[in-house]
Amino acid sequence: MIPDEFDYLAPATLAEALQVLQERGEDAKILAGGHSLIPLMKLRLARPKLLVDLRRLNELGGVRQSGAGLVIGAMTTHAEIAGSAAVAQVAPALAQAAQQIGDRQVRARGTIGGSLAHNDPAADLPAVMLALDADMVLRSAAGERVVPAGSFFRGMLETDLRPNELLVELRVAAAPRSVYAKMPNPASHYAIVGVAAAVDGNGTVHAARIGVTGAAPVAFRASAAEGVLAGKALTAETIAQAAERSPEGQELLGDIHASAEYRAALVRLLTKRALQRLS
Predict the structure, then answer these.
(1) How far from 146 is each of 124, 177, 219, CA to CA, in Å?
(2) Structural domain boundaries, residue 34
(3) Do 86 and 183 fall within a single domain?
(4) pTM
(5) Most buried of the four, 45, 196, 221, 278, by CB within 10 Å?
(6) How crowded is residue 68: how many other Cβ atoms within 10 Å of its Cβ?
(7) CA pair distance 207, 121, nearest whole angstrom
(8) Is it the case that residue 36 has pLDDT exceeding 90?
């Protein structure tokens, strides 16, 4: 298939990109890595009048440490994140997830910001952002907003981003006890189910955060399972109790890849595996 006609712009500065979005709004679509948008355009499911390519905005790339945590530019590729020693040390769940995205070509071109802004229900990174309790920095020509991950992912392919805003960076607090476990689709490597878990405290769990992707229309926190873990040690019994409750309260997806019942079983299994790796 061939995309519909569109105008193309590759701004040289972030200020220029934001001004274009301010002027064109919903007529414009952002091109980051392109792995989600270009196929939709070829099928004419997306017909932007203007494509705004961010490839020249080097200011939106890179990983840097900020205090004990990390600041990650939205145009940082999955390969850069997977290979970052700082990410592996400060937020290992993010490094593990990035290593499992697509194939080498996808990881070399795809960007963290593009993936999060697209918010595919089977994408790996939304679950990790929830487990890491990350902040999304959104910027427009009028100013900046900081939105927690729990408020950013709103529904299937829907986020809190406004038409005149860009996701410019992610702020991640230190979570050295964090992991990501996944059952991939063998063809696409998207998550049939993926579970990211992070715990605070040694011995006794002061707080636990468990993000789940692939199982529902939007990534979610397994709050019932988190509640089981609070104030307890990660024993085999506690982990089993938490895993059993991990799909609780969610309406899970059923499709050609997996039934809702199978996905519920995978959520329990992968939650158990993730927590076992942290115990």
Answers:
(1) 22, 25, 19
(2) 7-53
(3) no
(4) 0.95
(5) 196
(6) 10
(7) 26
(8) no
- pLDDT digits 0-9 by tens, 244-270: 999 999 999 999 999 999 999 999 999
Which of 144, 172, 200 represents a domain boundary (last residue)? 172
CB 128 within 8 A of CB 149: no
pLDDT 10s digits, 138-157: 999 999 999 999 999 999 99
Note whether residue 1 is domain-resident.
Answer: no
- CA–CA gap between residue 101 and residue 188 (Å, rounded): 9
Q: 88 and 28 share a domain?
A: no
Residue spans of alpha helices (H) in the chain? 14-24, 37-42, 78-82, 85-90, 92-99, 104-109, 112-118, 125-131, 149-152, 223-229, 236-245, 260-278
Q: Which residues contact 274 (CB under 8 A, 6 or more apart)?
A: 179, 180, 181, 195, 196, 197, 210
* Residue 228 lies inside a defined structural domain of this protein: yes
Number of folded domains that form the chain:
3
Could you tell me which of 268, 200, 205 has the C-alpha nearest to residue 240?
268
* CATH number for 102: 3.30.465.10
